[in-house]
Amino acid sequence: MKRVLVSGGCGFIGSHLVRRLLREHSDLHVVNIDLLTYAGRPENVADLADNPRYTFVHGDIASVEDVARAAEGCDGIINVAAESHVDRSIMGGDEFVTTNVFGTKRLLDYARTHELRYLQVSTDEVYGDVDPPHRSLEGDPLHGSSPYAASKAAGDLLVLSYARTFGLNASITRGSNTYGPYQFPEKLIPLFTTNAFDGKDLPLYGDGMQVREMLFVEDHCSAIDLVFFSGVAGEVYNVGAEHEVPNIETAHKIIELTGADPATLKRVADRPGHDRRYALDCSKLRGIGWDRTTDFDTGLALTVDWFRDNRPWWEAIKNGEAFADYSAKNYGTRS
Ligand code: NAD
Ligand code: DAU
Hints:
13 strands, globular, binds nicotinamide-adenine-dinucleotide, two-stranded parallel sheet
């Protein structure tokens, strides 16, 4: 593999992945195609601007022309780009289908006609919520609860269909809830952390007993890297922390790490269709040599420190008009 196309490399996971690929594979050229939506931040990869093995293409994965321009000469594609926020999908935007389904098809079509290796970065949300003690296995039925999860499940089914029907050399990773530096501050951990620094309320949906497996972003990226280079075609690999945490516990940890007033934790109306518990069985991924390296307490402390040290990064987002509009729509009617 000489040249790989990563989509969504200016987002949270994509920016860590691009950096990791350049660091771990000294002969690899990485092309990053990103539409620069509200979540795509060029500053997330500003440190790579002068790297001769890195190319940025401003483009849309749902455009045949943009994909062809970016993928020319590539041996593989890692599709990280997506509309990624559940609450925004509940607000009803078409972009969840355009990017997560149609965009996936565009990349698959290019990979098929040019016989490229393909990896789809997917999510544990495609399984829907699962009752204890079950942990989702790769062959479990798909039950996406939100429009976001449904669009990701549709993307996964397209990938599997291309592997079966056209023999495309494609695999899928399904990651659990990921956190770390550069995560957009609409998501639970960066939102609560930055609100805590500013003495604002921490809006906990419902009873806060929804369970997530919090995975440090570097561990998620090491799994994507491993599956892209060593995964079997047509196979799906779960990527989880295998450590379950209720949201209320995450909130209390953030309060402790930031020194926020516990009274700022406020219960607000629940997310419609809110999944109660995700849990993944990751034996298959472990079987090809992956292991998690960062436990939640270590990763969360590191993440809170990063947000403490990088206030200008998140203030530029949170002080903008677009973020205020989103916050008003999402939280305005909850309390
Ligand atoms: P993000 O929202 O931070 O970043 C998404 C990136 O994709 C942005 O840079 C955006 O500009 C880009 N993008 C969006 N539409 C595009 C388009 N049409 N063409 C090109 N680029 C486009 O997302 P994230 O949290 O980093 O998630 C990345 C991927 O990982 C997604 O596929 C998501 O479903 C999956 N995932 C995320 C998590 C998580 O907890 N964050 C967990 C499991 C899986
Ligand atoms: O599980 C993988 C998924 O994790 C990814 O596929 C998604 O792209 C990613 O956004 C994330 O989805 P979640 O919905 O789990 O992430 P979010 O940070 O939005 O919410 C995490 C939990 O916290 C969820 O149970 C809802 C709750 N929550 C979230 C917000 C934003 C709150 O209680 N209050 C909030 O304000």
